[in-house]
Amino acid sequence: MSEDDEQGRRDDESLREDIVRHEWAQFQGVNNEGGPANCQGNWPVFHQMRLSQFMTWPADLLSSYGDDLNQADATGRNLLTEKYGRMMESTVPDQYRRDIAPYLPKLGIERQTRQEAIIDQQVAWAKDFRERYPRLGREMRVLRTSQDTPDSTSFETYLRGELGTYSARTLGLYERMIADMASQGRNLTAETILFTVKQNGFNSLDEAEQAQP
């Protein structure tokens, strides 16, 4: 690895850590009925899960999302509050319509259509992963929005909430990443979870799968 490549790698590592810490800071500002949720006090798990996601992202996407978080701070928005608020459209729809939707930025039809195309691809990847690694798959969220309950949010609904917080630039870069991965026959779920299990000391998904009860 050249000196420039090594510096670029260190820069990406630093940016990922900055983003995770920035998200954590916003996460502490998310209001939850009944007081702070348990996950709002679990930095190690939050760090591991979010870092695993950002390990799959190219530098330009990381930089754009970092800018989104900074811009949110500058304008008094909290992207984590918005993400969890958007999820409530499925989990508690009446409360969402009454108390949440009026305060969220509106997403146009074209934007929603693009997001749904991304979601379709990622749900397909997640389904494929669960079929290939059923033990690891048991630790994942349920897959479909149709499986949501007030106490359980699916992978599909979580992703829809998150995509809805991205700026136009960030969504475009994310969209390109998904298209590139699909054209290369890659699976984003598998790559993300591989980074997760490596943080837990495993060398491969197969090794982690076999270690599950």
Write up this protein.
Helix 2 packs across helix 10. It is built from 11 helices and no strands. The mean pLDDT is 93. The protein is mainly α and 213 residues long. Helix content is 69%, strand content 0%. It starts with a helix and ends with a helix.
Task: Give the SSE order as H and E letters.
Answer: HHHHHHHHHHH
- Percent helix range: 55-70%
Radius of gyration: 17 Å
What's the mean pLDDT score?
A: 93
Low-confidence stretches: none
In short:
By secondary structure, this protein is mostly helical. The chain has helices at residues 3-27, 43-54, 59-74, 79-91, 93-100, 109-132, 134-137, 155-163, 168-183, 188-199, 205-211.
SSE layout:
Layout: H1 3-27, H2 43-54, H3 59-74, H4 79-91, H5 93-100, H6 109-132, H7 134-137, H8 155-163, H9 168-183, H10 188-199, H11 205-211
Helix pairs in contact: 1-2, 1-3, 2-10, 3-9, 4-5, 4-8, 6-8, 6-9
Q: What attributes does this structure have?
A:
single chain, 213 residues, 69% helix
